[in-house]
Amino acid sequence: xxxxxxxxxxxxxxxxxxxxxxxxxxxxxxxxxxxxxxxxxxxxxxxxxxxxxxxxxxxxxxxxxxxxxxxxxxxxxxxxxxxxxxxxxxxxxxxxxxxxxxxxxxxxxxxxxxxxxxxxxxxxxxxxxxxxxxxxxxxxxxxxxxxxxxxxxxxxxxxxxxxxxxxxxxxxxxxxxxxxxxxxxxxxxxxxxxxxxxxxxxxxxxxxxxxxxxxxxxxxxxxxxxxx
Length: 228
Prior knowledge:
Elements: H1 3-9, H2 11-14, H3 19-35, E1 41-45, H4 51-58, E2 62-67, H5 70-83, E3 88-91, E4 104-109, H6 119-132, E5 133-144, H7 146-154, E6 159-160, E7 163-170, E8 176-183, E9 186-193, H8 197-204, E10 208-217, E11 220-227
Parallel strand pairs: 1-2, 1-4, 2-3, 4-5
Antiparallel strand pairs: 5-11, 6-7, 7-8, 8-9, 10-11
Helix pairs in contact: 3-4
């Protein structure tokens, strides 16, 4: 069950010049530019190929992008060289951030990346985010309510860059689902942890105070928190 393959074939995440990636940027950047008005140090968590990292830099922030994928980070660094960017790209695990306490004014976690993490793991991610945020820092989270979205996925064929979802099956406790992607080149499976809005709200309350929640489209949210 390989997320790396998913990101390799999906231009939505691996090609900042693609229409799919640009659409994602256009959806979020108007809100982000309003939220991140005061200049500061930004951690772009699960930064991927760095499109949003470069956007934050253009807004005047000092930016660090962190991801665990060598493939995505290598592309991000190539884009940075092309753009003459000063964004620092770092390989690391969101569950154990390689940064000092209170070292960022903002931590931004976009792209529904929470599906990578089980409840225990996401609890550790949120704990680490709180640790590296300055006392009055802001945490910006973008995610989809997967419990609301899943029935739609089960009723439709999803096509992305030559692949389609052959089938979807859930574990008996409905804590995750597995999507089987197929193309003429082959088949692979990806596991998605099933995070709903209620569960995200409950977990985030342990570490943060919610300041704002924006439903940017149906079942997709951009939320702003402060440290407790």
